[in-house]
Amino acid sequence: MRHRLAVLIAGLAIGSVGAGVAVADTGGRPLSTSLTGAEEAPDPGDPDATGQADLRLNQGQNRVCFDISWADVDGTVFAAHIHIAPPGSPGDIVVPLFEGSFAGTDSISDCVEDVDRDLIKAIRQDPSAYYVNVHSLPDFAGGAIRGQLGD
């Protein structure tokens, strides 16, 4: 019985490591941005928080994969998105990246499937027209940290 449990746990651990490798090796165009509270608009975000967003946009597979990390975000992180807007302006969500309940210092890697090819093409052609932000509750529901792509 213990042997079966150990094999199951080992298999789950290997599967988790394999999932991380799949996210990192998804193909597509890489884009990255640093995230800060000062970049958030129209109101400043969390002044002490920082983060990093690394994306891979795969137009042929209709997929956006991401590795997002953040540190010192006040409250509970609940979502991150790609928005369309120039620096200093708020914009509409174009790709929801994740939702959940995360600590103020944490990270997540995953892929969003079935993203419109034309949208991926538009982001690839003009990344500076888009930004990534991370939202937290209770104080930064509109965005705690933000980074413009293509900067």
Topology record:
Elements: H1 2-24, E1 29-36, E2 50-58, E3 63-71, E4 76-84, E5 92-102, E6 106-112, H2 117-125, E7 130-137, E8 140-148
Antiparallel strand pairs: 1-2, 2-3, 3-6, 4-5, 4-7, 7-8
Structural class: alpha+beta
How are the strands of the biggest sheet laid out side by side? 1-2-3-6
**Through-space gap between termini:** 55 Å
Output the radius of gyration: 17 Å
Query: Into which percent range does the helicity of residues fall?
Result: 10-25%
What shape does the CA trace take? globular
Mean pLDDT: 87
Q: Could you name the ranges where pLDDT drops below 50 across 5 or more consecutive residues?
A: 1-24
Which series of helices and strands comes N to C?
Answer: HEEEEEEHEE
Total count of helical runs of at least 4 residues = 2
The fraction of residues in strands falls at over 45%
Please describe the biggest sheet, giving its number of strands, its sense, and whether it closes into a barrel: 4 strands, antiparallel
The overall strand count is: 8
How would you characterize the overall build of this protein?
The chain has about 150 residues and is α+β, with helices and mostly antiparallel strands. Helix content is about 20%, strand content about 45%. The protein is built from 2 helices and 8 strands, in the order H-E-E-E-E-E-E-H-E-E. A 4-stranded antiparallel beta sheet has the order 1-2-3-6, sandwiched between helices. The protein has a 4-stranded antiparallel beta sheet with strand order 5-4-7-8, with no helix packed on it. The longest helix has 23 residues. The N terminus is likely disordered.
